[in-house]
Amino acid sequence: MPTGPQPSAEQVNEVKTRFLAKLKSEPPAVPFHPSDLARINDNDIWITKLLEAYKLDVEKTITRLWENCEWRQSYGTNDITEKSVNQEYLHDGEIYVHNQDHEGKPLLIVDFSKHSKSKNQDDLIRLIVYWVERIQRKDYLQKMTLFMDMTNAGLSNLDLDFIKGIINLFETKYPYTPNYIIVHQLPFLLNAAFKVVKTFMPAEALEILRVTTKKDITQYVNQDNCLKIWGGNDDYKFKFESA
Q1: 178-184 vs 144-149, strand pairing mode
Q2: What PROSITE patterns does the database record attribute to this sequence (predicted)?
Q3: Helix (H, G, I), strand (E, B), or coil: what is residue 94?
Q4: Over the stretch 170-209, which tens digit does the pLDDT of each residue have?
Q5: Of 170, 126, 122, which is closest to residue 148 (Cα–Cα)?
């Protein structure tokens, strides 16, 4: 996974100092969640990761950190649980976390063969947020690989708005999270549509995008961590398990 320039202690301190000064002089109408404020006050990991994601742009990092705290408060990310997401979607196996990539990062799998445009996109995005938060609570701000599984997907499963929603979520809310974005077994029929997808992906996402087939998937996910349907050894069938 390519890594960018590392922020200096001075840059991290500037973001933290200016953010906290703004918090004091212009407090938000709804106070930020205590867990997020603790994340900023207690260590530098979140700020460091945001600075890395935004190529050491201090101004952009401060703006996005503030926006992120606002969003996390209004969205209820710190309090999201398996009970507060769509139960049908939680159990149907379209979105789940299982196994890891070759660098040990969890695979956040979106099985597009189970997707339908009739599903509620907001509920699906909320389920992705649930899984990201669940993983990152267990392993502090852990990176993960977004695995878009196109095996057996057809035109009826393709949903550009949903894919845009996923990309936007990671670009604006979790820019430090994706290790890779893997699109696996893209059917020939969907090639043209996927070219459209690439036009709305930010440069940072394109850098970590990998389109794989059964022949080369083991460059990113080893044989034992690959499902059999991907060409690997794992015969796992999804069944939701509580954290």
Answers
A1: parallel
A2: CRAL_TRIO (PS50191)
A3: coil
A4: 999 999 999 999 999 999 888 888 898 899 899 989 999 9
A5: 170
